[in-house]
């Protein structure tokens, strides 16, 4: 958050030779300012300013609906949140969800990519088909899975029934409800990992395999020592992206379980929503949100570090 | 170079095919094909079921056990998406129209603001450029449900709650980081020497950008804009919290509103989901060459 | 409303520039901005905005009167009815009933109230929302208007109180000194729906008999479950279910005098009710019914999957639609199998009060507030109430409730008329949204085995008490 647009231009790029009879440095500096500042202004107004406002509110007992002026409560809101067992319970739920979903889609996504990369024909069609879930709106995905997972009329239980298996209460039992969220998220986002893993797999030069083949290396050896090291960095990026996205999850919970049964599938995002819009405890909800943003920023930092390492390596 | 689907696959059909195929034998290949088929069926089944439900009579929708075949076909659900029960335009079709306006306008805004900034970031050496770019990307990672609280307070001071303009602005703000990151990659691919040559011919830097680089960027801009369009089109959280009236509501909250009445018309839900998804799938197909960059906000390109 | 917002837009660039400047300034600068927003509200809640005793002069220019409600058939019925009938008297007026998803209903209204700018003129509040709206000065005080224009003797006093009075009325009564902030729009309560072909023509009379009948029916008819009722953790679904059983077994939700919940809701009767709900009723429901609300219960009944079901009357109309039902190909055939009855009694004779009243947004422009008052006066006339009944609405005036227009309009209308004297509401306090969420999630958890029922009830008592004691603060 320390960025300013005050001195965006230090010097012109070294590459272009200066055009004759002009002062390109000044022109470039002004041009960069003119080109960058509108976008920055929008981000400052719509992202930074609200965030600073939330930061200020997080130290107050302000409520958006009550006609009382805001009083400073210091770090009160933060201690309320960090010492609340309810919040830690949601954090645990979120952790289980993020870990489960991301692990499952990484394994599946990589597996599918690997299988596709070994096919000679129909790869384009296959890949395109696999990508469909990722393009759908979470609303559509949530609604439809709610219909399919319905214990009575849902097609999933109907199929289990014809296999001679009993009905499963997908959305109304503690364990299965969280599992259902993980399954649905995995269904939607496995293609994401697959797409990126596929990009990595193509980058493995064929001559490496040939060399290994001459050495009569085992298939596992080839996978472990040639394929994986080359795909790994890309896969890590994909995992980071998914982890951050999953951490923010709101819409799927809202539609699929609305946090139930009880509060057992309430993620942090969903809990913030309740604090903010049921009790209208705006100050408290702001502190909650700021803490979540901090977590996301830390994750994004880690992610970018990997990205840089990748670029350098 | 952005990865395309067709490139994203090694060419085993040629003579540098993976050795496994030569040695592993048919058995293994059959297993692999079966596995892939099973996975494809599992991934596509919900989509097919959605299509099927959208053309079923309501009483077949609730049939137990589920009817996979042999149901009566009807297109009534699709009619209901667009035409109100008593005739006239349905509320849902109004929401689709709102979605078109909001997603379209926010995409235009994000593109107009983002493309020049991306060019500047690509061409000039700026102070703390990496930090600036990281900052820009990080705004994209804030949980929407958190951002919506201060945005809500700000909008109510500005009178932007429940307006299309409010949605357009917030979507643009969410798409600008993406546009900058994605476009920077495209600009990087256009050699700076082209502009230098133009400037030697007497163009100013601005003219060089406008006349030389920009035309070369058009395909990239189109791809970037399509992704921004998809993000705005599918967005739910801001739409549901910042709008409430029929005149402003976009399609995602409208579709979510189809359940929670006294009866749920799953056929209608399915039909509207299909209608809602088709433009996205068509657009995604158009930009399939840039999918990897698109879904990673331009961070992964190679 | 569009006009108001346009006016807002005009000052936008200046505002935005100011905001952008502020963004770069330190946090202290924000204090002024945020604080100014919080402090500079409407008139004090204690003496909130008041409607005049007489209706001001109405405009003859075209005018759209906007309602906000949630998505369900009565909303469409109201829009059609008002546009057909009210325009006979006021041809320049168009009625628009905007709807939001049920789960969003409270948020949609109160976020706009919080913005002190509404795109609706007549919010249709749930009876328990009144406290929050009044405390924040969001709706007009109609006391003087009602005194002057409404024949209060034509109503059951509790109906008038439940949809308008604040502070909340004692169950069954109206406090004539308290202010009124709304008028009844749509009455509602639960009806018991039972399968005449499976359990006989006579409905069970006590709660215990009802459970026995459901058990017997379930045993005799494989594939059909004994009971279907609301269990979801959204809206007020699971909470109303518990509250109903609590009432039937003689419990109380709270003591409104000293605002105590702890020790009241979880007293012996309360525990008994929770026990009956979780250990006797829940086992008779369909597997996976733990997230059912209105539409799922309707679907179960229409698909012939439930012996006995409980449903809001206003939401039961769809059950008679042969297109949605497997119980018959005509409405008469369906009515041969489905019976509608008032709720059984046990230790006490209590049914849940549902339905909603009309209120007037304090932020609507004066000419539309005047039109809204005129609409209310028009709506509460005897003949209009009867027409509303015939159009599928549930009126509140006693004469309309007893009229053949109402009683013959639907098979469940007699149930409503018989239930009026037995109704009980929940807490009508500003903290309602939090209280209902606590109860919903805990009852839902108990019903789905995520929490021990006794523990769930004690948690409800403790957490709700905390919310009341801290006036809604805390998590």
Could you provide a short overview of the structure?
Chain A has 313 residues and is mainly α. Chain A has twelve helices and one strand, in the order βαααααααααααα.
Q: What do these coordinates show?
A:
- The complex is a heterotrimer of chains A (313), B (302) and C (475).
- Helices cover 70% and strands 1% of the residues of chain A.
- Chain A is an all-alpha fold and 313 residues long.
- In chain A, helix 2 (76-82) packs across helix 12 (282-312) and helix 4 (123-135) crosses helix 7.
- Chain B has 302 residues and is an all-alpha fold.
- Chain B contains 13 helices and 1 strand, in the order ααααβααααααααα.
- Chain B is globular.
- Chain C has helices at residues 2-10, 12-24, 27-39, 73-89, 105-114, 130-135, 143-149, 157-162, 196-199, 207-220, 237-248, 268-281, 294-302, 331-337, 366-379, 382-390, 398-401, 404-407, 413-419, 432-447, 453-469; strands spanning 63-70, 93-100, 122-126, 165-166, 179-180, 183-195, 225-228, 306-312, 338-341, 351-358, 423-424.
- In chain C, the strands form 2 sheets. In chain C, strands 1, 2, 3, 6, 7, 8, 9, 10 and 11 form a 9-stranded mixed sheet that branches.
- In chain C, helix 11 (237-248) crosses helix 20 (432-447).
- At the A-B interface, strand 1, helix 1, helix 3, helix 4 and helix 5 of A face helix 1, helix 4, strand 1, helix 5 and helix 6 of B.
- Strand 1 (9-11) of chain A pairs antiparallel with strand 1 (125-126) of chain B, so a sheet runs across the interface.
Task: Give the topology, please.
The complex is a heterotrimer of chains A (313), B (302) and C (475).
Chain A: E1 9-11, H1 24-57, H2 76-82, H3 85-117, H4 123-135, H5 138-148, H6 155-162, H7 174-202, H8 206-214, H9 219-247, H10 251-256, H11 268-277, H12 282-312
Chain B: H1 19-54, H2 58-61, H3 76-82, H4 91-123, E1 125-126, H5 129-139, H6 144-158, H7 164-189, H8 192-200, H9 205-234, H10 237-242, H11 251-256, H12 266-286, H13 291-295
Helix pairs in contact in B: 1-12, 3-12, 4-7, 4-9, 5-7, 7-9, 8-9, 9-12
Chain C: H1 2-10, H2 12-24, H3 27-39, E1 63-70, H4 73-89, E2 93-100, H5 105-114, E3 122-126, H6 130-135, H7 143-149, H8 157-162, E4 165-166, E5 179-180, E6 183-195, H9 196-199, H10 207-220, E7 225-228, H11 237-248, H12 268-281, H13 294-302, E8 306-312, H14 331-337, E9 338-341, E10 351-358, H15 366-379, H16 382-390, H17 398-401, H18 404-407, H19 413-419, E11 423-424, H20 432-447, H21 453-469
Parallel strand pairs in C: 1-2, 1-3, 7-8, 10-11
Antiparallel strand pairs in C: 3-10, 4-5, 6-8, 6-9, 6-10
Family (chain A): Belongs to the binding-protein-dependent transport system permease family.
Transmembrane segments (chain A): 31-56, 95-117, 124-145, 189-209, 230-256, 276-304
Membrane topology (chain A): Multi-pass membrane protein
